[in-house]
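Researcher: I've been going back and forth with a colleague about how histidine kinase might be arranged in three dimensions. Neither of us has a model we trust, so I'd like an independent prediction. The organism is Nocardioides luteus, in case that matters for your notes. Sequence below.
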Amino acid sequence: MRAIDALQIALVAAGAGLAVGLAGLLVAWLTRRWSIRWQLTLVATIAVLTVFGGALGIAWMMFLSGHDLQVITVVTSIAVVVAILVAFVIGSAMVRWSGAVQEQARGMALGAHQPLHESGPRELRSLSAELAETQRRLEEASAREARLEESRRELISWVAHDLRTPLAGLRAMAEALEDGIAADPHRYHQRIRVEVERLAQLVDDLFELSRIQAGALTLTPEPVLLGDLVSEALAGADPVARERRVRLGGQVEDGLEITADPASLSRVVSNLLMNAIRHTPADGTVEVHCRLAPTDVPGDGPSVDLSVSDGCGGLDPDDMDRVFDFGWQGSSARTPTAPEGADGGSGQGAGFGLAIVKGLVDAHRGRVWVENLPTATGCRFHVRLPA
Ligand SMILES: Nc1ncnc2c1ncn2[C@@H]1O[C@H](COP(=O)(O)OP(=O)(O)OP(=O)(O)O)[C@@H](O)[C@H]1O
Ligand SMILES: [Mg+2]
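Model: Here is an independent structure prediction for histidine kinase. You can compare it with whatever you and your colleague have in mind.
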C-alpha cells in the first residue's frame, strides 16, 4: 500500500470514528442516569461501531470492495452482539457489587454490622472499607456520647444529693437558733459557717468543671518555679494535716521551672494534697516530689514529674481509672456524714477534685495517673507536664 493511501485510510477512519464517537458521547450523556449495566453496553457498542464507521468510510473511498464490506458488516454485527453480551454480564456484576455496598451502607444506618465487601473493583472495595471504618468511628462516638450522657445524669443526681444534705442541716440549725432551742448557739454558728463554705466550694468546683467540659478554660501560662508553688501548697495544707496528725514532706529539685498557669497548677497540687491527707491515717506521711523526667512520648521534649504519695493503704486496681471520673467516690463515700474538722476543707467532698485535676492537667497537655506504692502502704498520684 502506498504511503498516501495509508494516510487517506487513516484520515477517513479517524473522521468516521470521531463522528461515531461523538454521536456515542451524546447518547451516553442522554442516558447518563440509566443503570451502569446499560452504560457499559453502550460503551462496548460504540467501540465496535467506531470500527464499522471507519470501514464504511473506507469502502466509500473505494478502498474496499462490496464483498469486503459485506464481510466486515457480518463480522461487525456479530462483534456488536458479543460486545453487548459481555458488557451486559460485566454491567450486571457491577450492579451486584454496588448493591452489596449499598446494602452495607443501609445496614450502617440501622446500626447492623454488614460484612466487608471483598469482591469487585478496587474502588468499590475501598468504598466498602471506608464505610466500615466510618461505622466504627460512629459507634465509638455514640458510645462516648452515651457515657457522657450517663455521667451527666449521675452528676446531676449527685449534686442534688450533695446539696440536699447540707441544706437540710442548715435549715435545722437555723430553725433551732430562731426558736432559741439551740443548746450551744456558738457551735451552731460555727457549723453553719462550715456548711456554707462547703457549699461555696461545691459551687466553685461545679463552675470549674463546667468550664473545663465546655473547653472555656483560659490559661495564662507563665514561668512557674515549682519549688515555690509546692511550698505554698504545703503551707496551705499544713493546718489540715496538723489537725489530722499527718506529716507533710517531700523534695523538689532545685531551680525546676515550667511554663504553666500558676493558679491552675496550685489547684492541681492542693487537690492532690487534700485527698492524700484525707486518706492517710493519723501519724502517716504525705510526700510531694518533683523532678525532671525523661519524656514518655518519643519525639517530645523533657517533662516534669510531680508526685503526691500517701498512706491510704493502696487503691483497688479497678478504681485506678475511675478516680478521675466526675463525681466518682470510694465505696461508702456517698452516705451522709457530718463534715469533719472545722476548716470545711477536710470533710467529705463531692468527688470533683480529681476530675478537675485531670481537666487542668489535660489543658496543659500533660498526663495524670495513679499507682500503688510498692510497699502497698498507699498510693502515688503522678502529674507529668511538658517542661
Ligand atoms: N490520695 C488518695 N488516696 C486514696 N483514695 C483517693 C485519693 N484521692 C482520691 N481518692 C479516691 O478517689 C475519690 C475521688 O476523689 P476526688 O478528689 O475526685 O473526690 P473527693 O475527694 O471525694 O471530693 P472533692 O475532691 O470534690 O472534695 C475519692 O472519693 C477517694 O475514694
Ligand atoms: Mg478530692
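Researcher: What would you highlight for our discussion?
Model: I'd start with this: The chain has nine helices and seven strands. After that, consider the following. Confidence is low (pLDDT under 50) at residues 332-346.
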